[in-house]
From TrEMBL:
Organism field: Nitrospira moscoviensis
A Pfam short name: Cytochrom_C
An example molecular function term from Gene Ontology annotations: metal ion binding
Record region (Disordered): 177-202
Domain Cytochrome c per the UniProt entry, residue ranges: 73-171
Biased composition (Low complexity): 191-202
Keyword Transmembrane: yes
Name of the protein in question: Putative Cytochrome c
PROSITE patterns: CYTC
Entry's transmembrane regions: 6-25, 32-50
Amino acid sequence: MSEVVQLQLIGLSVVGIGIVILLFIRAQFVRVIGFVAIVLGLFSLVALAVPQMASLPPAEESIDIASIKTPADMAAIGQKIFFSKGQCALCHSIGPSESARCPDLKGIGAKLRREFIYESLTQPQAYVYLDYRHEGPPKEYPARMPYINKNPIGLSKNEILSVIAFLQQMSGEPISVSPSELEMPSQTPSAPVKAAEAGPVAVAHAR
């Protein structure tokens, strides 16, 4: 029996108790308690009837470096990271938006060099534009750019390069990031075997 079903049974029981109180008890105070029980029980039943949706963090995109053959492959992965693990779309828009909490990134790959974009992602306070569009008075944005290579976002170098590839492709620019720049996953060296765990050792005795 699921937890929801158990709660529904409890709600029905509370409603039933409230009805019994109203039918057979004449004391005014107790009847008020019965009425409240019916209301609360019905409210819980209605609430439990609403489909429950779990709020889960976005699934992380794993990068299979062996499958990346072209810069376009990197851009495809970067697009997924942009809208999921990177959480970029929570603040940035791609195109004009009055509700955006950070600058519009449309055409950003054509306006800024990849080195500048990389620095802006990993050291966002190193050089700050109030509004990089340079149109009209500078605009203050309410959100502050986080260090996306650190927690809680924690993108790896490969993921950041993939996002840059996506921004360049989105801007109609040639992708200057190459799959050859991706770092292969480091292999953890095996721990040395202790002498006690190596098994019996034959000892030669001098005669």
